[in-house]
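Technical note accompanying the year-one report. For the benefit of new consortium partners, we illustrate the data format agreed upon in the data management plan: each record pairs a sequence with a structure-token string. No post-processing was applied to the example shown here.
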Amino acid sequence: MDDRRRALLFTAIAGAAAVPFPGSGPSAAAENKASEPRQGWAHKDGAVAMRAPSKVAALANPMDYLLIHEAFARYGMAHDELRFDILSELFTDEAVLEVAKGNGKPFQTVKSGKAIVANFANVLSQQQDQRRHCFSNILIEELTADRALAIAYGLVSVAADGLILGATVIYRVELRKAGHWRFSRLFIGMDDYTTSAPKV
């Protein structure tokens, strides 16, 4: 087994322990510096700015916290089940969607709730597989009576004659409460996506 494979195996088993092993250290880091995406790219590029717990104000209403979590879940399931009627109720009229891959600069920007839902419908019409969006690590960073800021992780599975991991994603969302919580800005930052499957 060569040093690089041994290093990767060790990392997979031991996790992020700071133990030196063959193929590690500054020289290895220099050799691998061109790999994409960069570690911590979402924060380094200003796409996400997670706050320390001491900087997050007490939540105004715990029920709103739960309803924001539900907005993420409802978005993912409605997307995967082609429920555009539900998606249309999850975005404000002036909502903005941004999609990026491995850096903070969006390669796609869509403005208005109607255009966002139409964009999803167009993308999904070109896909023949079944996807499932699974959200985790949802953090509410700001919360008032009618506005919120949240970040989250997402995993997207793709089922089509087998099952693969389609993408790993970090989200930054701004929400407004208009009857229920709606996305007014949605940043979808994919670390990467599986090239054998269509884009998320």
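Partners are asked to follow this layout when depositing records. Strands lie at 91-101, 108-111, 130-143, 147-159, 163-178, 180-193.
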